Every structure is written in C-alpha cells, then in structure tokens.
Amino acid sequence: MQIARVQFVVEAVPTWRNWFVQVLGCQVVGDRHTDDTEIAIVVSGRAEFWLTAPRSDRSPAAAYLGTHPPGVADVTFAVEDVAATLDRALHCGAKLLQPPNAAGTEARLLSPAGLQHTLPRRRYLAAPLS
Known about the structure:
Strand order of the largest sheet: 2-3-4-1-5-8-7-6
Order of helices and strands: EHEEEHEHEEE
Strand content: 35-45%
Distance between the termini: 24 Å
Number of strands: 8
CATH class: Alpha Beta
Largest sheet: 8 strands, mixed
Number of domains: 1
Radius of gyration: 15 Å
Number of helices: 3
Mean pLDDT: 92
CATH topology: 2,3-Dihydroxybiphenyl 1,2-Dioxygenase, domain 1
C-alpha cells in the first residue's frame, strides 16, 4: 500500500496553488476543470496533491465545504487488493461510501475518524471529488 495522492478541498485554487508552489516548492503538473469544479494538481517528489474548489453550488466540493472547513478531504491509497483492504477497513469500523466497481479496481470508504479514503488498485487511480 502507498499513498497515491492527498486531495484538499479549498475555497480558491489559485491561493493554495501559489502556496504549494511558492512556499513549499511544489510543481504544477496539471489542471482539471468542469463547469462545477476547479482542480490543480501539484507534486513534490512522488507526493501528489489535488487542490479542489467549487465553481458552482452543484460541485461535490461545495457540498463538502458546506459541512467541513477547507482541508484534506481524501487520502488515496493505492493497494494491491481492493476487496481485501476494504474488508479489513470495514471490520475496523469504516463505512462504505462507494462499493468496488464492476472491475474491482476502486472503492471509497469513510474512516472512523471521518476522513474519506479512495482505494484504487495500484495501477488504476481514481478521479478526485469533482
């Protein structure tokens, strides 16, 4: 298992992108935009961070900010066996948010501490909250 990425939900992507680049020395490697959501992807070494902000009230990021302060929304762990990892997590009190997809390459859960985790099989990485 390895951390594949950390997703932050923020109110304004440019502010946080500048912080990660100018202060922390990260590099911008991509952007993803929809009508509802803005995402900047920055890296530091092998660490990948997704900075996500709502562009409309329909964005899942807007829903997240409606119930949480800005911050870490998802820690994605790339795993060898999605089903086995999910079974262990559920046994330890996690709640299922998204069952494994038909191919068994991804699932999402909510940890007992309230943090979302995406569990892609190591070579299949899921899209962030968008």
